[in-house]
Design brief:
Blueprint lengths: L8 H16 L5 E8 L2 E9 L1 E3 L2 E3 L7 E2 L4 H14 L26 H6 L17 H10 L16 H14 L3 H10 L8 E2 L13 E3 L5 H6 L13 H5 L4 H6 L6 E3 L1 H11 L13 H7 L23 E2 L19 E5 L3 E6 L4 E7 L1 E3 L2 H16 L5
Parallel strand pairs: 7-13
Antiparallel strand pairs: 1-2, 1-12, 3-4, 5-8, 6-8, 9-10, 10-11, 11-12
Helix pairs in contact: 1-12, 2-5, 2-6
Length: 388
């Protein structure tokens, strides 16, 4: 099958071996990876052991994983669909659609800024369990305050901006945002397991998230070219482990709550580059995707490394330089786009090669340097699987 898809079987084996090395070393307990091209899977592999539903399992290719911020690729696609429907203008203020949000100077925030992480409230508090109580969620939005003027800085918003984006999706579509993802994206592509908000009947198939390893030492950070001290994480370990609780799985955080297989993610990205799986119709016009994947962040840089962040409307674009800080390796085209997630997960597509890749793990490696290197190495080996 690899040869039929124009991929190098030896390169695919090197990709799998890199993932296996992390499992064998105990850096992560299990992982799942997938490659797709031409609208079909070329590789699915699941390695290691995990717990699910309170029991230890040898996970299979059907085991579901919490994808964390890979979820933002789905939320981006929801916005692109609404733009194509003529319902959403990225430049419009959020308050035109959600008036309750426009307090404390937030009337200046635009839809685009929600997706670019430039809207200025990265640490705004929101309890996921407030979501299904409309009054409580709107009260939360009204209380939020800006930390800097919108559009002036890039600081990654792990969850806050996507709660607002979910509200926008609901007001424009008339659908619960979780139903929008299911009925406008997952089901039309024949990917019913790709969900934000998972019913209880599926929870026993989800690999529980666990932490592993220890934080890198100062010497490790400096040797890797990182700052000597990492900033405090916006999302706590308790919050990450919350993805194991039934209530949080049911709610489905729009910034990080999607549950899927790596195969689901790889096939989803096939649809974004014009080769939808399962005989499905194209989700979007090519020009819509091209406009959405154009870099919109200009010279804005990330606060950790001071490098350009290269953000399209909800996705990260590889670009020519500084790819490693974005989770991409040196192989593949500058037009590769996708999104990574907590714990080292990543999913992307390359419009030039037609390849898509996804890596999921239930292990959250506390060593941020090792975690980042693993993601970049896997991305590099995946992109190098294209023969010739």
């Amino acid at each position: 099958m690899a040869g039929d898809a124009g991929l190098d079987p030896a390169a695919i084996e090197r990709l799998v071996e890199r993932a296996r090395a992390s499992v064998d070393a105990g850096d992560i307990p299990s992982c799942q990876l997938a490659l797709a091209r031409g609208g079909r899977l070329v590789l699915t592999a699941t390695l290691g052991r995990a717990t699910a539903g309170g029991r230890t399992i040898a996970p299979s290719n059907d085991t579901l994983y919490a994808t964390f911020s890979c979820t933002k690729g789905l939320m981006a696609t929801a916005a692109w669909l609404l733009i194509e429907d003529g319902l959403l203008d990225p430049s419009q203020p959020v308050t035109e659609l959600v008036p309750e949000f426009g307090t404390n100077g937030k009337d200046a925030v635009t839809i685009e800024q929600l997706y670019l992480h430039t809207c200025g409230f990265p640490s705004a508090p929101f309890s996921p369990l407030d979501w299904d109580d409309r009054a409580r969620r709107l009260e939360r939005f009204a209380r939020w305050r800006l930390e800097w003027p919108p559009g002036s800085r890039f600081v990654y918003h792990p969850t806050s901006s996507m709660w607002v984006a979910a509200e926008v999706i609901e007001r424009l579509s008339g659908l619960d945002y979780r139903d929008f993802i299911r009925t406008r994206i997952a089901e039309p592509l024949g990917l019913p397991r790709l969900r934000i908000g998972v019913p209880d009947t599926e929870h026993a198939r989800i690999a529980d998230v666990v932490y592993s390893g220890t934080a890198p030492t100062r010497d490790e950070l400096l040797a890797a070219g990182w700052p000597a001290e990492l900033p405090k994480a916006e999302v706590s370990e308790d919050a990450i482990l919350g993805l194991n609780t039934p209530a949080i799985r049911r709610i489905g955080l729009p910034g990080g709550g999607a549950i899927a297989t790596a195969a689901d993610l790889a096939l989803f990205y096939q649809a974004l580059i014009g080769t939808p799986p399962n005989g499905a119709r194209p989700l979007l016009r090519p020009e819509t995707v091209a406009r959405a994947c154009a870099v919109r962040t200009g010279g804005l840089t990330d606060p950790l490394f001071g490098k350009p962040v290269n953000r399209g409307l909800g996705v990260v674009v590889a670009g020519d330089a500084d790819r490693a800080i974005r989770g991409f390796g040196p192989t593949g085209s500058p037009r590769m786009f996708g999104h990574n997630g907590a714990g080292g997960q990543i999913a992307w597509a390359d419009p030039e090669s037609g390849l898509s890749f996804a890596f999921c793990t239930n292990g959250f490696d506390r060593n941020a340097v090792r975690q980042a290197r693993r993601t970049v190495a896997l991305s590099a080996r995946a992109a190098a699987c294209v023969a010739g």
